[in-house]
């Protein structure tokens, strides 16, 4: 049979107003002072999609994109401002592991409580009790109060209860990475098993690895709008591009140190990426304004990632290039042909000064450039591997 | 259609189910029945959460549940000897210890349920924000330990009534049943209403405490209605005093459970038509419960983002 729809979201919007007053006094004051409007924003705007049973859908986007809000709306924890969410089948929302655990109760008592919260009846819990305890791997401590548990034991028990609730629709929010490595593997196996059984999973995750590995469909949210709905790899790439835009805004700010008695200064630093067929080149131009003629000076540049990892530095001394000893504006151009950096933003530091002493003028993050995606693969380097598959004997 | 594989069975079941819709809140007046059904479906959870409150309370003490008997017993002894005998109040109110015990029992039920209920949404913030549940579950189960205490006190009362040979007449028990019903309904109505409001105005928790201190003296708990009647009998003040549903409920309990309450005596005075007043109080409490649930349903839509 073909898969029935299990979730339908139609024209969904959610409006938040950040009211800050939480007391009667403040509310009264606010009513009197009416002038200042509270901070308001749309966490979600006109989102529509439908999900078929049996699919695994990733919800991605950066912080504040509305993905957790969407998950909570689907789960019925929040109510929409406009639009509707329709869902059917048994729902389990794993937004927090061990929800409702009480520290003074034993592990076993908490299993009953947590299972009831997730919608299991006492009889069903009794049926699954042995499996739950077994899966958690903490049989020895199951009759100990959970306040004596380590945080690892706590989430193991929580996860164990959660995966034994027999859901048709499972909502997961960043909780897949719990416990040690063997336990994580166990969890992932369980999720794969869920997929085989035709359950529907909606997962919010920051990890593109998990999304690529699990999901057959990805929804990308940006600023409350749905910007991609479909193929997982494309979605992850788009998300990376959005992260890059974000990173462009987060570039390190320019920082300048000028020697007090310097008679020269950096006028301009510019970095340009040019794409040619088969290769990409980077041009870094440093313009230096020299007031009084001077000798033995040089220009130094460094290429860094946005988080400050130094990729490369070079100066005119090491390149054995003597710069003119006249006054005026001199332009020094560094050309990097066939630069093989991975996609993303990079910054350039530039300095002018003598060979082995403090610089006359130095600017950190003087310019930035963006490398485009040139092929497959991720990372700081762009490599083009040759693939060779053979049978080994 | 073959439905052999678990996947196909699951899908067939899902396909047969109707869609459940969440959208912006509908009419204020409708939806009570849906909420009642939703809470009823989670009754096991209400029970477990109530039990969590009670068990967690006495978890680490070696005497455990025995402590829940200690306070009401101590109260009974204090009222019987210290206030009843030593201060001589029992000359004005016969069987004073039992009289006070009944009043306090009712009053404690009301205040505990309302106070615990008011803070219940905030104290369960983790669940409210992360799990989809009918939120009425929290005020309901917060009152669980108060209900448990009430039951314990009922047992003590029965034992005390037998030991002191103060067995009330069977004929008055109806008053007590209605009185207790009014108190329970009223306290849950207030708990729901205030629990919802407390999320938006955190002061309510503290306001409730103060209001209860004052209201304690507005019902005949440690004095009898006879004093009020002798003092302001026949005036509008008496009528205002009697309009308080808590007063009616507590007098109903006293009329039914306190042995002298059913007897003819100069020392025992009840208002005219106490039964009618109890009936009106019951109807009013039910109406308030319905209204509180509607307000709660409205307010709960934004709980997850307001906490």
Description:
The complex is a heterodimer of chains A (393) and B (307). Chain A has 393 residues and is an alpha+beta fold. Chain A has 2 domains: 244 residues, Rossmann fold (3-Layer(aba) Sandwich), CATH 3.40.50.300; 115 residues, Coagulation Factor XIII, Chain A, domain 1. In chain A, 25% of the residues lie in helices and 35% in strands. Chain A is built from 8 helices and 17 strands. Chain A has a 6-stranded mixed beta sheet, with helices on both faces. In chain A, strand 8 and strand 9 form a beta hairpin. In chain A, helix 3 crosses helix 4, helix 3 crosses helix 5 and helix 4 packs across helix 5. The model of chain A has no long low-confidence stretch (mean pLDDT 84). Chain B is mostly helical and 307 residues long. Chain B has 16 helices and 1 strand. The longest helix of chain B has 28 residues. Chain B has one domain. The model of chain B has no long low-confidence stretch (mean pLDDT 87). In chain B, 40% of the residues are buried. Chain B starts with 5 loop residues before the first helix and ends with a helix. In chain B, helix 4 crosses helix 5, helix 5 runs parallel beside helix 10 and helix 5 runs antiparallel to helix 11. The chains are: A alpha+beta (393), B mainly alpha (307). At the A-B interface, strand 1, helix 1, strand 4 and helix 3 of A face helix 1, strand 1, helix 3, helix 7 and helix 16 of B.
